[in-house]
Write a structure and sequence with these properties.
Structural class: alpha/beta
Shape: globular
Number of domains: 2
Low-confidence stretches: none
Helix content: 25-40%
Number of strands: 14
Order of helices and strands: EEEHEHEHEHEHEHHEHEHEEEEHH
Mean pLDDT: 93
Largest sheet: 10 strands, mixed
Radius of gyration: 21 Å
Length: 389
C-alpha cells in the first residue's frame, strides 16, 4: 500500500479577491483539501479524488504545467456540488525526474485509488499522461473503452517518442495494453491525416465528427455510458471559447456543449477515470479557459453526484425498473432486445457473447426507432463486433 503524502504536494493557492457566493455555499465547503496543515489520511471515506498533474513535458505546450492550480482557483469560486458524494483534493503530484517517472507515479496512484473504490479525476498537464491511464488499467486487468473528446486523433503514422499528439501509437502497439475499443468525439477532419481516420475506421473505432456530435449531442451520452475512461482535451473547444489550449481551432464545441459532455461522463455507470488535459494558461485571456475548465470539472462532478447504477440490474427481469422490447428485423435471425429504464429513460440493447452469455450495449431511443423501421442500429453492429473478441 502506498502513502499518498509521498506522491502529492499540498494545495497552495491564493484566496480570490472577492466571492460572489456565500462561503458556506462554495465549492470548498463540502470537500477535503490536502494542505500544508492537513495531511492526506482516511481516504476510504471518499468517493472522488481530484488530483493535479503539473507536467507539461512531451508536449509543445509546456505551459500546461501551470494549469492545475489556476483551474483550482476558478473551481473553488463555484458553488458546492449537490448531493452527498465525498470529495478530496489530493493536491499536485510531484513530478518525476523524467516524464516516464511521472507516468509511473501517476499509474501507481490511479491503481491505488481504483482499488480503494475512489474515483480519480485527473487535471493535467499534457494529454501524453494518458499513457499512465493505460498502464493502470493493464495493472488492474481491466479491458477498457477509451472515449476521447478531442479535435485530433492522437496517432501519427511514423515512429517517434510518445507525446500529446501520438500517445495512441504507444497504447495501440503495446502488447500489454488492455485497450479494447476507442471512441473519438469531436474530431475535425481537416486537422487529421485521412490515412489515420481510415485506419481507425477499419479497426471499428467509433469516430464522431464535431459537426455530427453538435447536431444531436444527446446521442453522445450512450458512448460515455459504455466507456471506462474519458479523456477531454481542451483543444476540442473552439478557440473563442477556450483560447488557452496548445492547438486551438476556430471550430469546435461551444462551452455549454463541452460541459454537457462532461456531465454525460459523470453519470456513466462504467466510467472509472476522468481526465482533463492540455489547458495552457500562457495563451489564456482573462482566465477564460481555466474558468471553462473549472466548469467542465464542476459539471462532471455534478453528474457523478446523480449517478444511477443501473447496469448491474439489467439482467433482472423482475426488478420492475425496466421495460423490455423485442423488435423483429428482416436481416437478423433473432429479435433485437431493447431495454428501457423507467427511472432515467435510458436505453440498452441486449446481445449475446461468444459463449452465449448476455451483455448490454448502451443505446438511444433513436436506435429503437430505427430498429422499428427495419434498420440495424450502428450501436448493435459495434456491439456484435466486440462480442466476438
Amino acid at each position: 500500500m502506498i502513502d499518498l503524502n509521498d506522491y502529492f504536494s499540498p494545495v497552495s493557492i491564493e484566496r480570490p479577491d472577492f466571492n460572489f457566493i456565500a462561503e458556506q455555499s462554495g465549492f470548498p465547503h463540502n470537500i477535503t483539501v490536502h494542505t500544508a496543515s492537513m495531511a492526506i489520511k482516511n481516504t476510504g471515506n471518499y468517493k472522488v479524488a481530484l488530483l493535479g498533474v503539473p507536467d507539461g513535458r512531451n508536449s509543445p505546450g509546456t505551459g500546461t504545467m501551470k494549469a492545475p492550480d489556476l483551474v483550482r482557483t476558478e473551481l473553488y469560486r463555484l458553488t458546492r456540488i449537490p448531493g452527498k458524494s465525498k470529495i478530496i483534493d489530493l493536491g499536485n503530484m510531484k513530478n518525476g525526474v523524467t516524464f516516464n517517472d511521472t507516468v509511473t507515479g501517476l499509474r501507481d496512484v490511479l491503481v491505488y485509488l481504483i482499488r480503494q473504490e475512489i474515483f480519480p479525476v485527473v487535471l493535467g498537464g499534457s494529454s501524453a499522461l494518458t499513457l499512465a491511464v493505460d498502464k493502470a488499467m493493464s495493472d488492474l486487468d481491466i479491458n477498457y473503452t477509451l472515449a476521447g473528446v478531442d479535435s485530433r486523433i492522437d496517432y501519427i503514422n511514423e515512429k517517434k517518442a510518445p507525446d500529446s499528439f501520438s500517445y495512441l501509437n504507444t497504447i495501440l502497439h503495446k502488447q500489454k495494453s488492455y485497450l479494447s475499443h476507442y471512441i473519438n468525439i469531436g474530431y475535425q477532419t481537416y486537422l487529421n491525416d485521412q490515412q489515420v481516420i481510415n485506419r481507425f475506421n477499419k479497426q471499428k473505432s467509433e469516430m464522431l465528427r464535431v459537426g455530427d456530435a453538435r447536431k444531436a449531442i444527446h446521442l453522445t451520452e450512450p458512448l460515455f455510458r459504455d466507456s471506462e475512461v474519458a479523456v477531454f482535451d481542451m483543444s476540442a473547444v473552439r478557440q473563442c471559447d477556450a483560447p488557452g489550449s496548445i492547438c486551438p481551432s476556430p471550430n469546435g464545441f461551444y462551452g455549454e456543449e463541452i460541459c454537457l459532455l462532461a456531465r454525460y461522463a459523470g453519470i456513466s455507470d462504467k466510467l472509472k477515470i476522468f481526465c482533463l488535459f492540455d489547458v495552457d494558461p500562457e495563451f489564456d485571456i482573462r482566465n477564460q479557459t481555466t474558468g471553462l475548465a473549472a466548469q467542465i470539472l464542476w459539471f462532471f462532478l455534478e453528474g457523478f453526484s446523480q449517478k444511477q447504477y443501473e447496469v448491474p440490474a439489467l439482467s433482472n427481469n423482475n426488478s420492475g425498473r425496466f421495460i423490455r422490447y423485442h423488435v423483429r428485423i428482416t436481416d437478423l435471425e433473432d429479435d433485437l432486445i431493447f431495454i428501457k429504464s423507467t427511472l432515467t429513460d435510458r436505453w440498452w440493447m441486449e446481445l449475446k457473447s461468444s459463449d452465449n452469455k448476455p451483455f448490454y450495449i448502451a443505446c438511444s431511443h433513436e436506435d429503437y426507432l430505427k430498429a422499428n423501421h427495419d434498420e440495424i442500429p450502428d450501436r448493435w453492429v459495434q456491439g456484435s463486433g466486440r462480442s466476438k473478441n
